[in-house]
Amino acid sequence: MLRILRPTTASRFIRFYSSETTSHVTPNFKKEPLTPLAKHLRDSVKVTGPLSLSHFMREVLVNPLKGYYMEGDVFGKQGDFVTSPEISQVFGELCGIWYLTEWMRLGRPDKTQLIEFGPGRGTLMSDMLRTLSQFPHFYKTITDVHLVEASPGLRKMQRAALVKGSGDKDVTRIEGNEHEAPIETITRQDGVRVSWHDGIEVVPDQWSFVMAHEFFDALPIHSFEKTGSEWREMMVDMDDTEESEHNFRIVKSPNPTAMTKSYLSDKKFDIDFKDGDRVDISPDCWGVMEKIAQYLDRNGGSGLAIDYGQDYIQGDTLRAIKDHKIIHPMCDPGSADLSADVDFSFLKQAILQGSGVSAYGPITQKDFLQSLGIQARIEQLFKNAKSSAARKTLLDGAERLMDPELMGRIYKVLAFSKEPNTIKEEPVGFEKKKCLLESDK
Ligand code: SAH
């Protein structure tokens, strides 16, 4: 995740699927040890042939055998990357304030809940709840916090952050039908219930606030390259050569795949792209965003998707990060984070085509935080800080979040909201930023 922006390494390692021979072989690379996850991936390639990048990414990140996220903490200075809520408490506080403004704008419903996708360490939710608890009229409407999280290790960390002093024995497990994982639930001292789910499909219907911070970039992508007048898909094959230490390599399908036909048949892919251009498409992002929009359409509510990316389709954005450095995406699968830039234009279409929910933006993180008064909040914390070290951390953090060269511009904020027709006012920070369906432009 930022996940610093630098050119990705993937494109330099593409080969054609049909095994080519190379003349300049560098012999004798010692292969990385085969972990159980790498063995499993190689077995899959043996059975089905090269895997789509999407298949590979999903397995690497959330396979129970030892997917990257499955065990626990990967964040912060000691981990692989740092995210905005981990940089400064102000980030979560201002997101909380945005929800408060939405609650007022949308008619102050008397029963609300918060749903967060991929909550990481639980820091963002914890900062939002602390801030919102200072507004008792609103806070007393919050009955539940629902966390959609794949990783058992991170679920534990989230519990520790949100329900202090709790242990495994305090969690109630509600068994679903045979196809559903049990829902885990625990109640905080202030009466708010916290539950963990595998997807929004199993979150009970209620008026809701949704948050997805650095979640969509972790969802798998398919990646394509225009070759002559046709599109080819990037796939992951075994690498048994002595040319690299990795056990896998990225190759190009010799023919269009089913995904190529499904996603790139639109005329614009013929006209707007030339030989050698790359595009990444994430059907998973579409699927999750559409489900969120349909949930809000049914129940009412409002939400934010905050991530790095652009408001248009991009290509070759897969990147692997370990120890705060960009590494080769095929390096020891499961040991490094894999992510891709988010295509916000795609998310917006998923909202607008799939529901009666409005979409706004995206705007930059800098503009979002500014509209919520980051300057005043930083000044207040600065005055109360107990040491010069604390003051420095505060200012460094604010700079990192806001500076257009750091996270201020590449991180974008998309808002979505189910608005009764009577409401003409727009969400704070998103004035005149309402989006139209592609076909209505
Ligand atoms: N929002 C946090 C963490 C971002 S990392 C922050 O900004 O600090 C991505 C998060 O999404 C992790 O919690 C990871 O375990 C979770 N995640 C990744 N893929 C997922 C999936 N398919 N389903 C549910 N959670 C997922």
UniProtKB/TrEMBL annotation:
Gene Ontology terms: biological process: methylation; mitochondrial respiratory chain complex I assembly
The name this protein goes by in its record: Protein arginine methyltransferase NDUFAF7
Keywords per UniProt: Methyltransferase, Mitochondrion, Transferase
Function per UniProt: Arginine methyltransferase involved in the assembly or stability of mitochondrial NADH:ubiquinone oxidoreductase complex (complex I).
Catalysed conversion reaction: L-arginyl-[protein] + 2 S-adenosyl-L-methionine = N(omega),N(omega)'-dimethyl-L-arginyl-[protein] + 2 S-adenosyl-L-homocysteine + 2 H(+)
SUPFAM superfamilies, A to Z: S-adenosyl-L-methionine-dependent methyltransferases
Family that this chain belongs to: Belongs to the NDUFAF7 family.
